[in-house]
Amino acid sequence: MQTVKIVGAGLAGSEAAYYLGSRGVHVVLADMKPKKFTPAHENPAFGELVCSNSLKSDDTFGNACGLLKEEMRRLGSLTMRAAEKSRVPAGGALAVDREAFAAYITDALRSCPNIEIVCEEAEELPEAGIVATGPLTAGKLYEAIERELGGGLHFYDASAPIVSAESIDLEHTFTGDRYGKGTGDYINCPMTKEEYDRFVSELLAAEKVTLHEFEKGEIFEGCMPLEVMASRGADTLRYGTFKPVGLADGEGKRPYAVLQLRKENCAGSAYNLVGCQTNLRFGEQKRVFSLIPALKNAEFLRYGVMHRNTYLQSPKLLNADFSVKGRPGLYFAGQITGVEGYVESAMSGLLAGIHVWNRLNGREVSLPQDTCMCGALSAYIAGAGTDFQPMNANYGVLRAGFPEVRDKKKKKQLLGERALAEIERFRLTVFGEKES
Q: Same structural domain for residues 38 and 81?
């Protein structure tokens, strides 16, 4: 039986391990949990979600990440199955109970007879296998990557606070999903102009955690701390995180600004402050967010944190199948490759597993084309320009198409249909007719 070593049991490593293990490959899955944790992790289970419990929109033909999720479902993604089993109401988004989600992935890995799980911290790059150590790769392994591959880059990621449901003052809220999508799953916390202005003023004046010199770096736009966004202008939050567009209170009026709260678990006992990732000191977080009327007595179950994320200079180092140039048999997967986001990270692990399977079976490399999200993101990490930055799923990475169509909704529909046709072609190439 062939053996593949996979380092890291986050979303990418778990996807790759399950794909290969379920197809008869002996997988040695190495992770330092539960003996050691990164600064952002606390759950001993695998596939832990750190920053948010949302996997973003589930709209296949109206949202790029929604399209990516459907592509992954059709390729048999473990992450997508875990999400369906642990989802919580979140309007048009796919949000999950984090504990149940990680437990499902962990059970799937532990119950697979071909997956051998070992608790160890990687200190060197393996000669062959998949490295999926995530965006917090550090220590001796980080040094080995710098030494052998010419270094990594980094940016900063931040997570949002979580409050207890019973501590939310519901008299100052209304329920509803933006534009009426969903079943009224979000708790909306409206603010008047005076309340909003005071919040922004105190947010900007609040004391922040001081970063060490080695931690200083670029902030990724997709995970911008709330206080950094607010510093760009008084109305920045009203046109972003706190935008009231598509929402109406009990009297049918649109508030001046709105903070949305999303269920963090199936029980509905905890809520996430949507988009409020922050680097404020814990005491300051409680003081500032408590200025919002609905949160004046809020009990914070977890405060927001900020941490450094590491990613490779992938265009110089990786091929589109996530293999290392000049190092046959060695692959990277996950956010360390420069794909950004939970779903994107899992996608790269799934594809890396597929590509390793092909290699083990003597098949030629088969890539999904850039007419689908999987293929477009694979192409991006291997071919972006010199100013390489982490990339989420978005329509801009897809190959251009349908220039004659001016209606945006119709164009997204056509791009989605084209993407799913390409995924079906790729699926049949990899799996054949019998496997789904």
A: yes
Q: Determine the Cα angle at 306 with ends 280 and 170, to 5°.
A: 55
CATH code of the domain covering residue 123: 3.50.50.60
The pLDDT mean for the chain works out to: 91
The model's pLDDT over 170-196, given as tens digits with 9 standing for 90+, comes to 999 999 998 888 888 899 999 999 999
Question: Whole-angstrom Cα distance, residue 68 to residue 128?
Answer: 28
Calculate the alpha carbon distances from 386 to 315, 318, 336, 393, 400 in Å: 8, 14, 17, 20, 22
Longest dimension (CA), the chain: 68
Q: How many CB atoms lie within 10 A of CB 340?
A: 23
Whether residues 297 and 346 fall in one domain: no
Number of domains in the chain: 2
d(CA 81, CA 342): 14
Task: For residues 287 and 341, state if they share a domain.
Answer: no
Nearest 10 degrees: Cα torsion 268, 270, 273, 275: -70
Domain boundary among 304, 332, 351: 304
Spatial CB neighbours of 261, under 8 Å, sequence gap ≥ 6: 163, 168, 173, 186, 187, 188, 189, 271, 272, 273, 274, 294
- CA atoms lying within 13 Å on the CB side of residue 303: 16
Range with the poorest average pLDDT among 30-34, 358-362, 398-402, 429-433 = 429-433
Same domain, 185 and 252: yes
At 214 the pLDDT is: 40
User: Same domain, yes or no, for 300 and 313?
Assistant: no
Residue 219, strand partner residues: 156
Per the domain annotation, does 239 fall within a domain? Answer: yes
* Contact residues for 183 (Cβ-Cβ < 8 A; gap 6+): 89, 91, 177
Q: What is the pLDDT of residues 243-294, one digit of tens each?
A: 999 999 988 999 999 999 999 988 888 999 999 999 899 999 999 999 999 9
Which domain, by its residues, includes 19? Answer: 3-155+309-431
Tokens of 366: 């088969």
Could you give the 3-state DSSP secondary structure of residue 427? helix
Q: Which of 252, 274, 304 corresponds to the end of one domain?
A: 304
Within 8 A by CB and 6+ apart from 246, the residues are 178, 179, 180
